[in-house]
Amino acid sequence: MTPAPQNGSQPQSSLVAGVLAGNRRSLTRLLTLVENNDPRARAALRALHPQTGKAHIVGITGPAGSGKSTLVHLLAREYRRRGKTVGIVAVDPSSPFTRGAILGDRVRMQDLTGDPGIFVRSMATRGAMGGLAEATVEMVHVLDAFGKDVVLIETVGTGQDEVDIVRTAQTVVVVSIPGSGDDIQALKAGILEIADLFVVNKADRDGADAVVADLRAMLHLQPPRDWKTPILKTIATRNEGITELVDTIDRHYQYLDESGQLMRGALERTRHQVLSIARQTLYERLLQAALPDRTLETLVEAVLQRELDPRSAADALVALVAKDVSETGVPSKPAAT
Ligand SMILES: Nc1nc2c(ncn2[C@@H]2O[C@H](COP(=O)(O)OP(=O)(O)O)[C@@H](O)[C@H]2O)c(=O)[nH]1
Ligand SMILES: [Mg+2]
User: What Å distances lie between residue 142 and 3, 34, 91, CA to CA?
Assistant: First the structure.
């Protein structure tokens, strides 16, 4: 992770003031700090936290090429028509095979960027250290504090990061397309279970009704819930089914609110967020402790030479972090004797 350049940085308080005053440049700058896991983002995130919790956070997930970006674009326009402001966070897979699609997304998103009521941000996946899900959630919270009424998160529903990201949404929309039976299988199992509504996009193609039937059959296998997961058909390229989609997303929010699930969900999501930041922090500390002095390499070599078993090597790494944590004043259990 490269630290953001010193020049052009503002004191966090003016950054926060800028974000709260609706300044897009402050927002852009803060999102970059958050995306880079820059320590300077911390104070700002802390200051903004009381202003969060107002936006409706909607996750749009599904296989690559299913039309998520097109749908997100149309949803944003429909929300604007209804007088709501929209933030968009699109998580781009870092795979080189999808670069073209990312470019396509950028081009298509462009006609949204002229509208001050819409803010679009796309982010690439992180390097080996991970932390994508944690950073994305924080970016969503910044957009929430900025005052966006709706925040849309687009992710490809295949990796664990994506499942983690989508779990942070209040309403989860899972997109599939005709002839995508295999794609549905390829979605992480967890995603189907957290779907609040299904969209079968590209309904201009043959087989849309078969996908609807498949999804319906699958839903029958799930334990009954108060919320009957709707299945909608859309043709994003013709702007068909979008008003119904927004109506249904809104209806889901109303259901969450009236049933008390909005609060329960917030409790669960917050718990998950705290734990996942803690896990990520520990992991980063572990790498920081293990990388200098080639500690990790030395341990790996020892395991390879059969001088040490993998679990003992891992214990040695964990002990390094435990020492590190206790030195920073965080209470930790005494090392085993
Ligand atoms: N035929 C048809 N094509 C669509 C529809 N929606 C999107 N597409 C096309 O599918 C391709 C992938 O769309 P995109 O929004 O980038 O998908 P994403 O990868 O899920 O974000 C693009 O060429 C779209 O124009 C649709 O309803 N029908
Ligand atoms: Mg896309």
Answer: 20, 9, 16
Q: Which residues, judged by CB distance below 6 Å to any ligand atom, belong to the binding site of ligand 1?
A: 64-70, 101, 104, 201-202, 204-205, 235-237
Nearest CA to ligand 1 atom 28: 202
Rounded to whole angstroms, what are the CA distances from 297 to 114, 141, 204, 310? 51, 38, 55, 13
Which pLDDT value is given to residue 70?
A: 93
What are the beta bridge partners of residue 56?
150
C-alpha gyration radius of the chain = 22
Domains defined along the chain, listed by start = 9-51 (no CATH), 52-259 (3.40.50.300), 273-327 (no CATH)
Separation of 70 CA from ligand 1 center, angstroms?
A: 6
Q: How far apart are CA 108 and CA 235, in angstroms?
A: 16
| Residue 143 CA, ligand 2 centroid: distance in Å | 20
CA of 137 to the centre of ligand 2 (A): 18
pLDDT tens digits for range 193-232: 789 999 999 999 999 999 999 889 888 888 888 899 999 9
Q: Tokens for 86, please give them.
A: 């929209």
Atom number, ligand 1, closest to the C-alpha of residue 105: 16
- C-alpha 282/C-alpha 332 separation (Å) is 12
